[in-house]
Amino acid sequence: MALTPLFPLTAFDAPPEAITHVCAGGLALPLKSQHAALTRHMAHKTAGHKGHAEQDRELDAVRNLAARSWGVPVDDIGFVSSVAEGVSILLESRQWEKGDNVFVGKDDFSSVIAPFAVRAQRLGRSVTPTVIYSSSSDDEEAELEKKVNSKTRVIAVSYVSYLNGARVDLTAYRRAADRVGAILLVDFTQAAGYLPIDASVADFAFSSCFKFLLGTTGTAIAFWNRARQPDWKPATAGCFSLTLRQALLNWEREEPVETRDSALCFSRGNPGHVSIYILREALEFLSQWEAAEIEEHVLTLTTELLRRLDEEGIRCSTPREKSRHGANVTIDCVGASEIVNSLYTAGVYAWNGTGRVRFSFHGYNCMKDVDRIMEVFPGLWREWNA
């Protein structure tokens, strides 16, 4: 019944016990061990070329942890500075023809949509794809059947929605991509860290690390499914994304440019080592539990909060069934910003934006946090939505 936290609270730089921290979908709690990660990074940075070798070892350790967590080969894992950067690199790598299109969810996060939408507006449709938006249909298969066509080159989707917490059926998206020969691009940001991830369903995938993965900004995980897309190459490069021999050659010789044959080619410059060190502590911490165990704990809390909100007559935009939502419970309402500020004053740290209040649970939460939300939120909601 999730009566106690799954994660030991002593492992976190947590706020006082009186605070209910339910905003992991925006910013998760940091780990105490991450202070030591910063110290370790500084020690390596002062150690000359020996320290540089230590940085490489940290990078390899994090890639191995991420690969095990996502069930993929380690060479399929690399890093970008953000999900938007990863999506942009993929966009740049494609040869677009007039009439090509990209299928995205109209309610998806801007990191997924903006690279395609902005390019279409800036450069015109003759050199960039038309963006086709899905509706908020409950029938994903029908929506994909209706809008994905022979000119669809990329299908881009978040596994769990930041907006309403809905979880999509990625196998349906895989079937649609295979039907027309499109690339399936998945954003795992609102899922990685508490849901089991099988990244192999995607051709490319990315995830921010400062939410449920317990890391920080500056690094996002990048996945290139080399079994599905063996011939893919980035269209741009930097020193780090090249092979070592290529990075050191005499450019006047005009030799063919060779990028790494691994997902490390996503990093055009040196990876963000500070955030990599912090991410290592987070992934090692999370690896103490099976993802399914964290999922069960988190979804016990979400379904209980959804049930109690229903009893209060408060309508949520999050699907009720466990299999159809993630860690977020969202309520579209008037006065969302003011309500979240009042919640904060009352010691409940939630999230707001686009006219909704969002509560996000993680392994450090428990049923007491649901109780506290229900003590404070319904009254504030009624002040604005009676």
TrEMBL record:
Pfam families assigned to the protein according to its UniProt record, in alphabetical order: Aminotran_5
Species: Aspergillus lucknowensis
Keyword presence, Transferase: yes
Top-level taxon in the UniProt lineage: Eukaryota
Alphabetical keyword list: Transferase
Name of the molecule in the record: PLP-dependent transferase
Molecular function (Gene Ontology), one example: transferase activity
Domain Aminotransferase class V as annotated: residue spans: 45-372
Gene3D superfamilies: Aspartate Aminotransferase, domain 1 (3.90.1150.10), Type I PLP-dependent aspartate aminotransferase-like (Major domain) (3.40.640.10)
